[in-house]
Amino acid sequence: MGIFDSMFGGGRRKATGALAEFYDVPLQQDRWLAVDVETTGLDPNKDRLLSIGWVPVDGDEIILGGAGHVVLRGAEGEASVGESATLHGLTDDAIAEGVDPREAMEMVLHALKGRRLLAHFAKLETGFLDKACRQHFGAGLKVEVADTMQREYRKYQAADREPRRDELRLWTVRERYGLAPYKAHHALTDALSGAELWLAQDAAGLPR
C-alpha cells in the first residue's frame, strides 16, 4: 500500500464518479483552490449547503479564469432557507432555480483536482463538502487543507497572545493586511477574499 492509499484508505477505494476521478489525480506543487460555501447554518449534520464558490491559486497568482460559482437546487419539499437568507441573499426562489447538487459537486471536484483546498475556517467547507461527497459519490472527501484563519491564529500564538474571536474574522484580518473591503457572504467573493488573504500572508512571511 502506497502513502496515498494509507492516507485515504477505504474512502478512496469506495469513491465513485467525480470523487474517484479527483482521487486519481496527484497533488501538484503549490496549487490551491480557494473555496467558500454558503449554508443555512454551521452544522453539516442538520444544515444545508446552498452555494459554492472557488478560485484557483497557482503559486503567487490568482487564476480568475478558473473561478466558479454554483447555487445548489433544493430537493422538492425541502425546508425553506429561512432567516439565513438575510446573510447570503439566497432566497427559496433562487435555490429552486439552482443546479442539481450532484452536478454542482462534480464542478467543484473537477476544479479541485491536483490541488489543496484553501479556505478561511476550512472546517466549515470541508464538513459540508464531505457530506455532499458521501451523498453523491459513496465516500467522504479527504483533501489536504490550508486555512488562512489557522495561519493567522498561529501568528498570535507566536506572539504569546490569544486573539479575540472578532480579530480572526476574514474581513477583520483582510483589513489588517490592507486588502480592499468586499461585500461579505457571497461564496465566490469570499473565496476570492480568502485567496487574496493567503497571498498577503505569504508576502508578510507567515509560515505555512
TrEMBL record:
Keyword set, alphabetical order: Exonuclease, Hydrolase, Nuclease
Keyword Ion transport: no
Exonuclease domain mapped to chain residues: 31-207
GO molecular function terms listed in the Swiss-Prot or TrEMBL record: exonuclease activity
Gene3D superfamilies membership: Ribonuclease H-like superfamily/Ribonuclease H
SUPFAM superfamilies assigned: Ribonuclease H-like
Protein name (record): Exonuclease domain-containing protein
Phylogenetic lineage: Bacteria, Bacillati, Actinomycetota, Actinomycetes, Mycobacteriales
